[in-house]
Design brief:
12 helices; globular; FAD/NAD(P)-binding domain; alpha/beta; binds flavin-adenine dinucleotide; 28% strand; five-stranded parallel sheet; 455 residues
Length: 455
């Protein structure tokens, strides 16, 4: 059996390793236009900020290690066309002026996503970076170590992580976000809280400009020197990092007749099968099922890519496991502030026609006399009609994410706020107050439901 895999970061590398374990005699060839395979893009901000010196710690498995297991890795080889009628892929060897066809019995598409480049004049100047690949991380870190000023375009989770990285490299950083708030995948009140909390700790180290747009980079042959904004600001910079979101690499699949879903990413079933027989897709190039509502969502996250790569391999090898979907769980950090969420936000619920009811509590994350006590704010959301929990968001310097993680199980189980309030969470002073803030939130939420029932 010949298994061909396109792309080799999280989904593709996982699929290759799993397929080899399942079918040791299969011929497995992985083609990627990248210079590395099997790496942690998620770790790039932490490498850039200087947590460790050797970027190779980001590499999970080298091409040599794959080869030892009998998996053939073809770096700098871009797939340009899928010919499903003859079960072949046209591959272009980058820099060699050469293209060739490879045959497959099973094809796994794991070509991921790429950064969105906003329309800013002179965006192709030197020292304007995106952050996606190993080379990006190496180049940004080198530049950060020799620089004083930078600008980040975009206040989503990668922009926020890059803000921490550059601040820790002592680079004075301006983050420009065109929307009125940052971290817009949270509800507006929580995004506002994130902004307020970050502004409190910014000092002279960074500034966040919201409702502002970068219109032009200006510089010379050596690179960008100045960023101009819509409101007329001129910000001197040594470099810029664009973190304006990502979009799925769907072109090669679409051109082969593979169906896209309603989110614009590749449509797959729970076995990661596309509409064309023997072609599977996984990772950032596919859309997911959002378990809470059974609707489609595109959530380009490494954790999803890994799980999907595993299922794509199992299906390609004849197995029958499924990937049922995601809850929308995510977590990130900027300096000492953590931000996490799972399930639906109130605004997302409304777009799906669900009437949400929510409670927001701000509490200590531990007993107040503990030296490392910190505030956390939790927002717990339920469906007004059914009482079932829909989601949770957590922000704070304290341990908010462990509370959000607790809610994930409740979402999977379909618990109501009242049922969740009966949860027996752990307690000791270094870990939580006697009644955990999450249970406080659940209690208030279930009281709201009792009030609805009584009235
Ligand atoms: C800075 C940063 C921080 C992140 N932090 C987190 C985090 O904390 N938690 C989390 O869950 N996720 C995080 N992510 C997201 C996570 O890295 C991605 O979801 C994950 O890398 C997706 O893996 P993938 O294999 O689907 O796609 P990709 O990582 O995009 O890999 C696809 C590969 O395919 C190659 N390719 C593309 N087109 C072709 C072609 N035609 N032919 C051959 N090869 C091709 C690409 O060059 C690339 O090497 C982060 C991402 C970034 C950039």
């Amino acid at each position: 059996m010949k298994i061909v895999i396109l792309g080799g970061v999280a989904a593709g590398a996982k699929a290759a390793a799993k397929a080899k374990r399942l079918l040791p005699d299969a011929q497995i060839d992985l083609y990627t236009d990248d210079t590395h395979v099997s790496y942690s893009a998620c770790g790039l901000p932490y490498y850039i900020e200087g947590n460790f010196e050797d970027y190779r710690l980001l590499l999970v498995r080298s091409p040599g290690e794959f080869e030892q297991d009998g998996i053939h890795i073809h770096l700098k080889n871009r797939a340009v066309k899928i010919l499903s009628s003859t079960k072949q892929v046209l591959i272009e060897a980058l820099g060699e002026n050469r293209a060739f066809l490879v045959d497959y019995d099973k094809l796994i598409i794991a070509v991921g996503a790429r950064p969105v480049i906003p329309q800013i004049r002179n965006v192709d100047l030197n020292n304007v970076f995106t952050v996606r690949k190993i080379e990006d991380g190496i180049a940004i870190r080198k530049k950060a170590e020799e620089s004083s000023n930078a600008v980040i375009i975009g206040g989503g989770y990668i922009g926020i992580e890059m803000l921490e990285a550059l601040v820790r490299q002592n680079v004075r950083t301006t983050l420009i976000e065109y929307a009125p708030t940052i971290m817009q995948n949270f509800d507006d009140d929580m995004s506002e809280l994130i902004l307020v909390e970050l502004n409190k700790i910014s000092g002279e180290r960074f500034e966040i400009l919201t409702s502002e747009i970068a219109t032009e980079f200006s510089g010379d042959n050596s690179g960008v020197k100045l960023v101009r904004t819509g409101s007329g600001k001129e910000i001197p910079v040594d470099f810029a990092v664009i973190c304006a979101g990502v979009k799925p690499n769907i072109e090669i699949a679409r051109d082969a007749g593979i169906m896209l879903g309603e989110t614009g990413a590749i449509k797959v079933n729970k076995r990661m099968e596309t509409n064309i027989p023997d072609i599977y897709a996984c990772g950032d190039c596919v859309e997911e099922n959002l378990i809470v509502t059974n609707t489609k969502i595109w959530l380009p996250l490494g954790t999803n890519a890994n799980k999907e790569g595993r299922i794509a391999a199992i299906s390609a090898c004849g197995g029958n496991e499924t990937f049922d979907g995601v809850l929308g769980s995510a977590v990130t950090r900027c300096l000492n502030l953590s931000m996490s969420m799972t399930g639906l936000t109130e605004k997302k619920a409304r777009t799906l026609g669900i009437e949400p009811v929510s409670v927001t509590v701000t509490k200590n994350d531990k007993v107040g006399y503990m030296p490392d006590v910190n505030n956390i704010t939790l927002k717990l959301i339920a469906d007004k009609n059914t009482g079932k929990l829909l989601g949770c968001q957590g922000v704070g310097a304290g341990d908010a994410d462990k509370r959000v993680n607790t809610v994930t199980s409740a979402l999977l189980a379909g618990l109501t706020a009242e049922e969740f309030f009966k949860n027996d969470l752990t307690y000791a002073p270094p870990f939580s107050p006697t009644i955990d803030p999450l249970l406080n939130a659940a209690q208030i939420l279930s009281e709201k439901f009792s009030a609805y029932t009584e009235s």
